[in-house]
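Troubleshooting: if your tokenizer reports a length mismatch, compare against these two reference records.
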Amino acid sequence: MASSWWWSSGAAAGGLMLGAAASGLTRRFLRQERTLAGAWWFGAVLTAAALFLLGWRVGARGELAVYGFVAVLAVPLAVIDWCEHRLPRALTWPQLVGAMLGFVVLCLVRHDPASGVRALAALVSASGLFLILAVATGGGVGAGDVSAAAVVGLVTGWIGWAQVVEALLTASLLAFVMIAAPGVRRHDDDGATVAPFGPCLLTGALVVVLASG
């Protein structure tokens, strides 16, 4: 119990610093200036909270570094998508590549490629599903959502196939709640009800990782 507390506290402290730094990315990629979204303390608090929970549940395992890296970039991505309904490739691609490299290192160190192979297969499956949805909806699902789904598939696929399904279902449920909630839902230029799916996907992955421990 004490060990988990030390890891979670250390992860939270690192999250404060990394989140404050990553808030610069939020400000850089937001097309319009937004006081709260771009505030350094806002990104720091969100990142610290995510890393605290990850440190508490994952502990000293090597996965903490990979999950933490994904979480640090997930915060500016979620904020940007919430504000402007877009996920910049300049953030989603490094997030995906960094997570892949981290898992490759873990496979090499542990001499066990099974989790890495499954994670790669889940990446292809999740991104392929969202690519089909993007084509079928004629833009209702964007390219950024496809990249975010790839990250979610990779991270949860490392744990297991059931976790991939759970993360996508959780994301879909969150999106449904956002669309149904009168104070949260928004409308596009054509009057259709829309919701930023990036935050839902990234939150779904975090929930599943935390539940899996």
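Reference record two:
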Amino acid sequence: MKSTGLLFIFLLFATVFLASCDSNLKDVQKINLSEFSPSGDADSITLKYTDSGRIKAVLIASKMLDYATVKYPFTEFPKGVDVTLYDEKGKRTYIRSNYAVQFKGTDIIDLQGKVKISTEDNQVLETEQLYFDQKNSWFFTEEKFKFSAPKGISNGEGIDFNSDFTLMNTQKFSGEIEQSEQ
């Protein structure tokens, strides 16, 4: 009889424990759900970044989600972005991607999905993922890329460069590009 009583107490304890776990699990799920809900949601946006009264960049996106209240805040562009960068002389660099996320506090933008950067002088870089360091105006990736210019085409894996392609560092590289002396 003692073993039957102990078994009954154990089963009662296990039932109470499992019932309380189910309730706690639902509470935890609710916390996680609310934690990653965007604090801001915008459709069809155009953002203009200025410095000293001059336009430095224009960002156009059909959808923006702002996660400003999470532990590591970020802004997401789930339907992609079109960005135009302007240098000091007004030359433009165009950027397009199918998805983008900007990590607040790091000045890094992660561009993903058919990323294409082109300049006014017909230089084009295409890749699947590219990071942009806003503070230093520098792009980098470890992914495969294709670079096209009026004087040639090259392919590689891993590249970093400035926004007008005047400074470039490549890792695995193949192809030929004729460069003019300046």
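Descriptive notes for reference record two:
- The chain is about 20% helix and 55% strand.
- Helices lie at 2-35.
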